[in-house]
Design brief:
Multidrug efflux transporter AcrB transmembrane fold; 19 strands; 3 domains; 14 helices; 5-stranded mixed beta barrel; 5-stranded mixed β-sheet; Alpha-Beta Plaits; 583 residues; alpha+beta
């Protein structure tokens, strides 16, 4: 008689070696938790609705003469520049996203300088360098004969002639700083001597009665312009917001402390290659170092050459952003070589602000601040507490249901939920600095929904096993026979959930994306946990006496489940025998 073949009916799902799958997922969990401690990212990054912060909605506007400038390319360019400008302030947790065709959402969570960032985000129009024709301040101007506007050499010492003298030597990223620009300490420090304006006895430029209608109109606008900030909002008038860069204009200083007559734009923001704030240790002062493109180098050299021969304030050029003058340095000589520095009474914040404006100020679109929402840290903490309470209640209800209905099997479900929670928490903590993921209130809702999705996978498998026991099979074969059918159902269910999360993530922006991302992430982790943790653990528990014998508290008691009698193989009928006496 041939011996029965061994190994018939191969074990599925790793019946023979479930320890390997458990070891693999435990190693992954250990690596993720170890990565959290190694990087110091022990908690997930929170969004503005949980940690507090500011959310700004910007609406894109077409540039004058360019009715079709709002397109996806320009919007993406603007998003990149705005993000760099905000991050340049040290707000590394900011989020800049497009919403619809012409809106950009800027989220600045838990930023101590959110107001400063808001000011820079709100000033996102074109950047121009214009020559100063005349300037007047809100305070009495100094006597033109007095040395009210001293110039400084690159070393910070006044030059005998009252003008800055070029001094070579300092370098920045390989660029020679060929000359220095001095930031005017007070934009209202001098008057214009250019035809078209004449100094009054008080030193304030007045209309000269020029026969040129354009010049006379400009003089009239300048005389009537009041740059005093509005009470309450402190908003500074901006008559030059949509001014033609090829024509002269009048403008206000960004602080409302001065008004200007400016000539046509000589250099554009796109001609600036880089700008950075640097602390000069030799002079003990903050400076702004500029680098220009090849095209910008030529234009800047020509412009500064013309300005250097003029008397103050016509030796100044205005750095104009969104129609307002943010700085008006004076020039002592032509600046070539593609680099320069602006020095003056800077501190670190003001130098960084100016460097960011110069680096990231040139946008292909104009933007209007449509809405601003600020959430305090206290309110965010309350919302986070409410979300955690809701999650705890949902988890408690699931645990109670599992314990009451599945008894001993609930241990496997709870351990699987714990494994899923560890993986989810570790990944959320690591994805914050890696891809900028922030846990907001909708994302917390996604995690709560995921508890039910994960528990549903366990229930599908448990019910398949119990169905096999009801058919009269013992636990070990029931565990393996139930797995293929349960596996298909779990994969189909998770695929539908993941597909819904993916579609929601693609077609939405902002906070809803947090919900979709969390739902998709936890759905993928559900597949990993069920295959590498729940199934192998079930296989190991089936080998124990408590579960294998169908203990009443195991949740797999055949009597309680109404199992049929054990399946038995039918025996062949014995062949009839012949009594020798009858033969």
């Amino acid at each position: 008689m041939a011996a029965p073949k061994k190994g018939r009916g191969p074990a599925t799902g790793g019946q023979g070696r479930p320890g390997r799958a458990l070891a693999l997922i435990l190693v992954v969990m250990g690596a993720l938790v170890g990565g959290m401690f190694a990087t110091g990212d022990l908690t997930p990054r929170l969004g503005i609705d949980l940690a507090g912060g500011t959310s700004i909605t910007l609406r894109a506007e077409n540039q004058p003469g360019k009715p079709d400038s709002i397109n996806n390319t320009n919007m993406q360019t603007a998003i990149g520049i705005i993000e760099r400008r905000v991050n340049g302030l040290g707000v590394s947790e900011s989020e800049v996203q497009q919403q619809g065709n012409r809106h950009i959402i800027v989220n600045i969570p838990k930023a101590t300088n959110s107001e400063q960032a808001r000011e820079q985000v709100g000033t996102t129009a074109q950047l121009y360098f214009r020559p100063v024709v005349a300037v007047s301040g809100n305070t009495p101007l100094p006597d033109p004969s007095a040395d009210g506007t001293p110039s400084a050499t690159p070393s910070g010492k006044p030059a005998p002639s009252g003008k800055a003298t070029p001094t070579p030597g300092a370098t920045t990223q390989g660029r020679a700083v060929t000359d220095a620009l001095k930031k005017a300490p007070t934009p209202s420090a001098s008057t214009s001597g250019k035809p078209g304006t004449q100094p009054s006895p008080s030193g304030t430029p007045q209309p000269s009665g020029s026969a040129d209608p354009g010049t006379a109109a400009l003089d009239k606008q300048f005389a009537a312009l009041d740059c005093t900030p509005k009470k309450g909002t402190k908003e500074v008038p901006n008559p030059a917001r949509n001014a033609d860069p090829a024509k002269p204009t009048v403008a206000c200083g960004s602080e409302g402390d001065a008004k200007y007559i400016l000539g046509p734009s000589e250099v554009e923001g796109t001609d600036v290659d880089e700008a950075k704030a640097v602390l000069d240790p030799q002079r003990g002062m903050w400076i702004v170092q500029l680098g220009f493109t090849d095209k910008g180098t030529k234009k800047f050299a020509q412009t500064t050459g013309k300005l250097a021969s003029q008397a103050p304030p016509q030796n100044q050029f205005a750095i104009m952003l969104d129609g307002q003058v943010v700085s008006a340095p004076s020039v002592s000589s032509a600046i070539g070589g593609g680099s320069a520095e602006i020095s003056g009474s800077f501190n670190q914040d003001s130098a960084t602000d100016l460097a960011n404006i110069l680096s990231y100020g040139a946008l292909p679109l104009s933007f209007v601040e449509e809405s601003v929402t600020t959430v305090t840290a206290a309110l965010g903490g309350e919302q986070l507490k409410a979300g955690l309470i809701a999650g705890a209640i949902g988890l408690a209800l699931v645990v109670i249901y599992l314990v009451v209905y599945y008894r001993g099997l609930s241990v496997i479900a709870l351990l699987s939920l714990l494994a899923s929670a560890i993986l989810t928490y570790a990944l959320m903590s690591l994805l914050g600095p890696a891809i900028g993921f922030a846990l907001n209130l909708p994302a917390v809702c996604g995690a709560i929904v995921a508890i039910g999705i994960t528990a549903d996978s366990f229930i599908v498998y448990f019910e398949r096993v119990r169905d096999e026991i009801r058919e009269g099979r013992t636990l070990r074969p029931a565990v393996e026979r139930a797995w293929p059918r349960a596996r298909r159902t779990i994969l189909v269910s998770d695929f539908v959930s993941f597909l819904a999360a993916a579609v929601l993530f693609i077609v939405t922006v902002g906070k809803v994306q947090g919900f979709a991302f969390t739902l998709g992430l936890t759905t993928l982790l559900d597949v990993v946990v069920v295959f590498l943790f729940t199934k192998p653990l079930m296989t190991l528990f089936a080998r124990t006496k408590f579960f294998g014998s169908g203990h009443p508290w195991s949740g797999l008691d055949p009597k309680r489940l109404g199992a049929k009698p054990p399946l038995r193989r039918s025996r062949r009928a014995a062949a009839p025998t012949i009594d020798p006496k009858e033969a």
